[in-house]
Specification:
The complex is a heterotrimer. By secondary structure, chain A is of the alpha+beta class. In chain A, helix 6 packs parallel to helix 8 and helix 8 packs across helix 9. Chain A is extended. Chain B is an all-alpha fold. In chain B, the strands form two sheets. A two-stranded antiparallel ribbon of chain B has the order 1-2. Chain C has two domains: 162 residues, P-loop containing nucleotide triphosphate hydrolases (Rossmann fold); 74 residues, no CATH class. Chain C contains ten helices and ten strands. In chain C, the strands form two sheets. A six-stranded mixed β-sheet of chain C has the order 6-7-8-3-9-10, sandwiched between helices. Chain C has a four-stranded antiparallel β-sheet with strand order 2-1-4-5, covered by helices on one side. The chains are: A alpha+beta, B mainly alpha, C alpha/beta. At the B-C interface, helix 9, helix 10 and helix 11 of B face helix 2, helix 3 and helix 4 of C. Chain C: InterPro entries: ABC_AA/LPS_Transport (IPR051120), ABC_transporter-like_ATP-bd (IPR003439), ABC_transptr_urea_ATP-bd_UrtD (IPR017781), BCA_ABC_TP_C (IPR032823), P-loop_NTPase (IPR027417). Chain C: This is ABC transporter related protein. Chain C: One of its GO terms (molecular function) is ATP binding. Chain C: One of its GO terms (cellular component) is plasma membrane.
Chain lengths: 637, 411, 246
């Protein structure tokens, strides 16, 4: 669609101040005849002279190509939606009834390449860039000629861009096959969408059925009937479409034909009651066929005979074999690199998913590791964190500030909730893990309903600040949204913080002691009750922060936690208990696997999740204690 | 030592059976079809469904209360049973409807055409017109009735074998059962799983071949069937847990390692009970869903199974009648409170709408039961019967288990 | 005399720590043997290996006349083959009656279906009563095991071991927490049991071992340091060095 280029240029020129252009006037006066009835062969010098007259000439050319140039009383006028202006003077023309000039496609091509040539020679860098972008969107053979003829580009970035576009246009439009092959080979390995788009039409094929190899055609391959990508039905359909066999009779057609010829409860000598049998239907139809009342349909044998005598080919639309070979090789190379890029992209996706699981599961892992207690309300703590973020946002208008406030706030809220839960419930159920699981489940349903009562059932937005919107894009394939990067950083931060607390602080020392041997720790003067409470609070607090992070890209609803809780459990179970690296490994494994399974069938995330869980159930068979199991005699208890 | 008959050794079984019979008789006499009509058909259906849930709870109690496995996937078997019977109900009914509509055609349909039309009718909603492989036997009631117990039983057998042989225990096992349910639910949610995705199976309340009977009578028939199944399997469960077998599985619950050193194949016992419970649950489900009329994958999300555990816990686990009472009381209360018919509780300054607050109350009361009445409602009966809990001092005391327990032991 | 249990060069390590190091050991069909050794000598691990709880990294354990390897069997199979184990702490099923505990331990088919259709007979009831009487719990058969005293639980567990009639009995610190009178009873019982079967007693208490008056195996750092009568091993300078001398 060259119209867009022309419209762009038109706008540019019409914005110029109107001024008389004597050179233009002279050219027009000399060649009015040519302009009125241009011919593809002779118009070129005229166009070149008009283009040389400057901006007014260019405006005239773009109006000409866009079929908005008219002739009124021997003067050229440019007609726009709401009026007309004199092409030479730029003054408004009123009352005229211009006769519109309608140059043919060949002439328009000449004009356009002159326009492009003018634009890419423009002293204004922005204009040159705009022209290149426009050509990149929809280039033509004329653009190619203009690009080749144009003066060298001074700006290195634009020069590179221009060279690339020229190559792409060469691939598509150059008359010389050798030049096209060279261009294709030059660009092989490129994964840009534009290159792949340039290759696709070269490799487009159509199906041909004929008795012999089609002469002079660029054959991609011969098809074997009955193979996976060319089933028998497709072959028959192709033959029918080419008129080589009679159309086969569908069951519905047969039924309708039979129904239309019921005479006295019989069709072709077969009684209607018998027609529930397919063979009886065939007999009846053949009888009708014999009587000439229904059109003949291809029988199985006829079809078979027709198929036997005919070969099927995929034929390239592009006649040059050298070009298609080069294109195919280039495409294969591009596909390979594309696969690698997609792998990297998948890796990034998996990494961000893993960091989410890590954030969601780490709190669970801490409490499970220290107390052997599964907190079913963990998901609801995540939800509380997300709602805290939402509340912070309603109170503080500035998005960045509210986020900064929300993180510690969410930690504080869920820490407090965790401590309360511990003091009121879990402490009294020590060493009864299954009952703890159920009691915390009671808390979980109560909290969920409470959230519904307070915030309603519809999703609440938790909007990320502007600097977190958007994505970091490496190329056409590899990109990752900034929020996910931020979550990854957050997960790293928490890993660091957690390691610091565990290895460098008194609390961490005591927690590790209680995890390994609570009895011994107690006899060393550590209060296991206090340690359990602190770890429970810590784990819950991290859940709150995970909630804020998750809320930034997911909908904040009362069921937010439920969506992550099972995956969090899986992470802990797969990773192994009582070790942060285990949780990390579990989150990594689950994140990567989810994405890999999903990539096999991207449309079906449900199947991916199903297979993921099945995998975990089987994984547990081989590593019942997780990837990084707890060691020593304590693990036996 | 003479051995008393089974019933006399378990007087509670007799009481339960008598109450069940009285209940069934009372409902029948109050139904619109066979009695005064005091109970509308919908209520009869609710009561019939409640009996099915009670049966599922009894099975859950076998697994959890007696064997000590907190299975959070029990409702998967329930729903699978429902799906299996639902396949026949839906297929047979659709076939009847399609056959009726095709018989209006000038030419009688072929078998193939009939099948295609049925498939189109059932699967058009998920954009498919082929009958999936899993529906191969759907035309046969006998086959699907076998599948009602075979499919959940097989699933339980395979899953149990995998889980038990790798000695996954306690909380891990609970999480694993939950994962199994979730995986199954997600699989069923897909449109191409062959079970109509999230549309599920519907129209199950219409029993093919019984079109003339009417829902009022059908609902009572199903109530009878549910009561009979409950009675039968209650007696079976009581017999299973009553003898040496029950002794062994309770021993497994309390100290599985010790049972192993006595020479019992612990995994075999677990597998037997788990599979039996799965099959009982599936039968309960197969009776439940024709009364509910519709089944979809949401029915087997993990939350449903956790609710089942909640009922059993509130009723009192380790007592079959406790599980039953819990399921009946809590599920009826739940449907009453969330049905919007319960009057608001007017506190000063705030009117408590039960639709909004029942869930909160249930959750908290559940926490309270776990904390203060671990024996649940059945604990009251124990108290009345004068059965005092043994003065158990927790599990063994020792350096590995931490100081807390020693404090507990003193208390 | 052919050995009933033959432990041949087993080694096992936990996270790099060698709990058992090339240990060889054998015991006859009717023999009482005491195993002593300092903490961490590998006594409990040795019992874990024989009963199937722990798998050795190398070596073999053979049992019975046909010298069947125990390494390919699980705990339950080993128990059914005739190896009984008495834990250090009394582990009985506290929620069940003394009679139920004993009934469970009676020698009978252990498969789930056999158990399901098992019916108590006059013979089984008599055997339970006899066992209860033997361990001094005749009046307590209907009480729950959890209500018994610590010593009574120990006895109940011994009763359960007798009920399953093992050919090899592994006893872990039987005297722990017993009164003097109970110890004497226990000694007598163990000595009597050893007349018809093999009994291995792991014990710390030297007085108790002396009362048993049997062959003693001293373990140290996962292997046998000395073997013989108690007087013999207590004179062994190595034993004095690692165990008694300190």
């Amino acid at each position: 669609m060259t119209c867009r280029l022309i419209a762009l240029l038109l706008n540019l020129f019409l914005a110029l101040p109107a001024a008389a252009n004597p050179a233009l006037e002279a050219v027009i006066a000399d060649n009015l005849d040519q302009i009125e009835r241009p011919s593809r062969r002779t118009v070129e010098p005229v166009v070149a002279r008009i283009a040389a007259t400057g901006p007014e000439g260019m405006a005239l050319l773009s109006a000409w190509a866009g079929r908005s140039l008219g002739l009124a009383d021997g003067r050229l006028v440019i007609v726009t939606g709401d009026g007309a202006t004199d092409a030479v003077t730029g003054q408004a023309v009123t009352g005229a009834d211009p006769k519109m000039l309608r140059p043919n496609a060949g002439v328009r091509g000449v004009i356009e390449s002159a326009l492009v040539a003018g634009e890419i020679a423009s002293p204004d860098r922005a204009r040159r860039a705009a022209a290149l972008a426009s050509i990149a969107r929809d280039g033509t053979a004329e653009h190619l000629a203009a690009l080749r003829a144009a003066a060298p580009e001074p700006d290195p970035a634009l020069a590179a861009r221009r060279a690339r576009i020229e190559k792409l246009l060469t691939i598509r439009f150059d008359a010389d096959p050798a030049a096209r092959v060279t261009a294709i080979q030059d660009m092989a390995g490129d994964v840009g969408l534009d290159f792949r788009a340039a290759l696709n039409p070269l490799l487009a094929t159509r199906r041909v059925a004929s008795a012999d190899e089609p002469q002079g055609a660029n054959i991609a391959r011969e098809l074997r009937v009955g193979s996976d990508d060319f089933p028998r039905e497709a072959a028959i359909a192709l033959l029918t479409a080419q008129g080589l066999v009679q159309p086969r009779l569908t069951a519905a057609d047969q039924r309708n034909a039979l129904a239309a010829h019921i005479v006295d409860g019989r069709v072709g000598g077969v009684s209607v009651a018998e027609l529930s049998d397919p063979q009886a239907r065939d007999r009846a139809y053949e009888a009708l066929e014999g009587a000439g009342t229904v059109p003949p349909a291809a029988t199985e044998a006829e079809t078979e005979a027709a198929l036997a005598g005919i070969r099927f080919f995929d034929v390239y639309a592009e006649p040059e074999a050298a070009v298609t070979d080069a294109a195919r090789a280039a495409q294969r190379g591009a596909e390979w690199r594309l696969g690698a890029m997609k792998g990297i992209d998948l890796g990034l996706d998996a990494l961000s998913l893993a960091s989410i699981y890590f954030l969601a599961a780490i709190g669970l892992a801490i409490t499970f590791g220290v107390m052997r207690v599964i907190n079913m309300a963990h998901g609801e703590f995540i939800m509380m964190g997300a709602y805290t973020g939402y509340v912070a946002q309603t109170l503080i208008a500035d998005r960045t500030l509210s986020l900064v406030a929300a993180l510690p706030l969410a930690f504080a809220v869920t820490f407090a909730a965790g401590v309360v839960l511990y003091r009121l419930v879990i402490r009294h159920l020590a060493h009864r893990p299954l009952e703890t699981l159920l009691a915390t489940f009671g808390v979980s349903i109560a909290l969920q309903q409470l959230a519904k009562n307070i915030f309603g059932t519809q999703a609440r937005p938790l909007t990320a600040p502007a600097w977190l919107e958007g994505a970091i894009t490496v190329n056409d394939v590899v990109s990752i949204s900034t929020i996910r990067v931020a979550i990854f950083v957050l997960a790293l931060l928490f890993l660091g913080l957690f390691l610091f607390i565990m290895k460098r602080t008194r609390l961490g020392l005591e927690v590790r002691a209680v995890t390994q041997n609570p009895g011994m720790a107690a006899s060393m003067g550590i209060n296991p009750d206090r340690i359990a409470m602190m770890t429970f609070g810590l784990g819950s607090g991290i859940a709150g922060i995970a909630g804020v992070a998750i809320g930034l890209f997911a909908q904040v609803t009362s069921e937010l936690g439920q969506q992550y809780i099972v995956q969090s459990f899986m992470t802990v179970v797969v990773g192994g208990v009582g070790n942060i690296w285990g949780t990390l490994a579990g989150a990594g494994l689950i994140g990567v696997l989810s994405k890999v399974i999903e990539s096999f069938n991207p449309s079906n995330t449900l199947a991916a999740q199903t297979f993921m869980i099945l995998f975990i159930v089987i994984f547990i068979q081989f590593r019942p204690r997780g990837i990084i199991p707890q060691r020593g005699r304590a693990a036996e208890a | 030592m003479t051995r008393q008959p089974f019933i006399l050794r378990n007087p509670s079984v007799l009481v339960v059976l008598a109450l069940l019979a009285a209940f069934t008789l009372a409902v029948t006499l109050m139904s619109t079809a066979y009695g005064s009509g005091a109970l509308p058909t919908s209520t009869v259906k609710v009561l019939g469904k409640t009996l099915c849930l009670a049966l599922a709870a009894v099975a859950m109690d076998l697994v959890w209360g007696y064997l000590g496995i907190l299975s959070l996937g029990q409702m998967a078997f329930f729903a699978l049973g429902g799906y299996m019977i639902g396949q026949w109900l839906m297929y047979a009914r659709t076939e009847a409807i399609v056959a009726a509509s095709l018989s209006g055609n000038p030419i009688p349909p072929t078998v193939q055409e009939l099948r295609e039309a049925v498939a189109n009718q059932i699967f058009g909603v998920v954009g498919s017109a082929d009958l999936p492989l899993v529906w191969t036997l759907a035309h046969s009631l006998t086959a699907q009735l076998v599948l009602v117990v075979a499919v959940p039983g097989l699933l339980a057998l395979v899953f149990g074998w995998l889980a038990f042989r790798s000695r996954v225990n306690g909380v891990y096992l609970s999480i694993l059962t939950q994962a199994m349910t979730l995986a199954l639910a997600l699989w069923l949610f897909q449109n191409d799983s062959g079970f109509r995705g999230n549309n599920g199976l519907s129209g199950l309340q219409n029993i093919p071949g019984l079109d003339g009977v009417g829902q009022a009578r059908l609902s009572v028939w199903f109530l009878w069937a549910s009561a009979a199944a409950l009675a039968l399997f209650y007696v079976l469960a009581a017999w299973v847990v009553g003898g040496k077998f029950g002794s062994v599985i309770r021993a497994i619950r309390d100290d599985e390692t010790r049972v192993r050193f006595l020479g019992y194949p612990v995994e075999g016992f677990k597998l037997a009970v788990f599979t039996l419970a799965a099959m009982i649950t599936a039968i309960a489900g197969a009776l439940y869903y024709p009364q509910a009329g519709i089944i979809n994958p949401a029915e087997l999300m993990p939350i449903a199974s956790i609710y089942l555990a909640v009922w059993v816990a509130i009723g009192g686990r380790g007592r079959l009648y406790g599980a039953m009472i819990g399921a009946i009381v809590v599920s009826l209360l739940s449907s009453w409170f969330t049905g919007g018919r319960a009057p608001d509780l007017n506190l000063p300054g705030y009117a408590v709408k039960w639709v909004d607050w029942w869930q909160v109350a249930l959750g908290l009361s559940f926490v309270l039961v776990t904390l203060f009445a671990p024996k649940g409602i059945a604990g009251i009966f124990d108290r009345l019967a004068g059965i005092l809990p043994p003065r158990r001092h927790g599990r063994d005391l020792g350096p590995d288990q931490g100081a807390l327990q020693e404090q507990e032991a003193k208390a | 005399m052919t050995a009933l249990l033959e432990v041949d060069g087993i080694s096992v390590s936990f996270d790099g720590f060698r709990a058992i190091n090339n240990l060889s050991f054998s015991i006859g069909a009717a023999e009482l043997r005491a195993v002593i050794g300092p903490n961490g000598a590998g006594k409990t691990t040795f019992m874990d290996i024989v009963t199937g709880k722990t798998r050795p990294d190398s070596g073999d354990v053979k049992f019975g006349e046909s010298s069947k390897s125990l390494l390919r069997m699980n705990e339950a199979q080993i128990a059914r083959a005739g190896i009984g184990r008495k834990f250090q702490r009394p582990t009985v099923f506290e929620d069940q009656s003394v009679a139920a505990n004993l009934t469970m331990a009676l020698k009978a088919s252990r498969g789930p279906f056999a158990v399901l259709f098992w019916k108590p007979s006059a013979a089984s009831a008599a055997r339970v009563a006899e066992l209860a009487a033997e361990v001094g719990l005749a009046e307590h058969t209907h009480r729950k095991a959890g209500e018994l005293s610590h010593g009574q639980k120990q006895w109940l567990e011994i009763g359960m071991l007798l009920a399953s009639a093992p050919r090899l009995l592994l006893v872990d610190e039987p005297a722990a927490g017993m009164t003097l009178a109970e110890r004497e009873q226990t000694t007598a019982l163990l000595v009597r049991l050893a007349q018809t079967r093999a009994v291995v007693v792991v014990e710390h208490d030297m007085d108790f071992v002396r009362r048993l008056d049997c062959k003693v195996t001293v373990l140290h750092q996962g292997s046998v340091l000395a073997e013989g009568s108690l007087d013999h091993v207590t004179r062994n300078p190595d034993v004095i060095e690692v165990y008694l001398g300190r």
